[in-house]
Amino acid sequence: MRPEENIEAVRRESALLADAARHNLAPTVPSCPDWTVSDLVWHVGGIHRHRFWLITEHPQGPQGFEIDRPHDSQIVDWFEDGAEQLARVLETHEPSEHVWTWFPRDQTVGFWQRRMAQETAVHRWDAEHAASETHPIESALAADGIAEFFDTLMVVQDEPPKGTGETVHVHATDEPAEWVITLDPEGARAEAKHAKGDAGIRGSSSDLLLALWRRIPLDHVEVLGDRTLAERFIDTMDLN
């Protein structure tokens, strides 16, 4: 995904999230059962404003940012304003500009361009799920989300998935995107390639991403080979 595509995704997915939430703030979010839709909007809106603060103020770390939660009568408008502020700062700063991130290997604005597109897209789906009317994540965005899952999120796990050399093949059916994850004793590693695995997980990019994030069960995608291995790989990821 190019930077401008990620920024466009932040705008598009934020607008869809706001549409899903505007008249639907009270219900519990099934995929985030500790939250109501209002809590979800507050969470994503707070993240948007925090990343705006990181990029514009250049603190040495994430601490020191505080905001007050708006009333539910204003929270969706507040969310939309913050999403646009974030999109504007993401497009007016160079992707290579140094900024604090929680990923030691990439301390750039480009990291946040990608991460905010993915954060917003998955939570947009959450908001729609609470309204019982979900739409797939756009395929190229979802495929990059799967790549991010393996090249970033899996890397920073305190307790990464481990094994004795077992392999899981993840294959998108709508994008030229597939990976082989090897579960070594020291942790999981992913390679972008085609190869048969001990377990295979196959489906659309959107369904694969949502399954990896445990938004939908593995029954919604095709699982080949060792299903127990596929389930163990996904279940051992710490996504809190």
Folded structure, characterized:
It is a single chain. With 240 residues, this protein is an alpha+beta fold. It folds into 2 domains: 3-130, Four Helix Bundle (Hemerythrin (Met), subunit A) (Up-down Bundle), CATH 1.20.120; 149-235, Nonspecific Lipid-transfer Protein, Chain A, CATH 3.30.1050.10. It has 7 helices and 7 strands; from the N terminus they run H-E-E-H-H-H-H-E-E-E-E-H-E-H. The strands form 2 sheets. It has a 5-stranded mixed β-sheet with strand order 5-4-3-6-7. Strand 4 (178-184) and strand 5 (187-191) form a beta hairpin. The longest helix is centred in the middle third of the chain and has 22 residues, at 109-130.
Question: What secondary-structure arrangement, pairings included, does this model have?
Answer:
Elements: H1 3-21, E1 28-29, E2 32-36, H2 37-57, H3 72-92, H4 109-130, H5 139-153, E3 166-172, E4 178-184, E5 187-191, E6 199-203, H6 205-212, E7 222-225, H7 227-235
Parallel strand pairs: 3-6
Antiparallel strand pairs: 1-2, 3-4, 4-5, 6-7
Structural features:
240 residues, alpha+beta, Four Helix Bundle (Hemerythrin (Met), subunit A), Nonspecific Lipid-transfer Protein, Chain A, 2 domains, five-stranded mixed β-sheet, two-stranded antiparallel sheet, 48% helix, globular
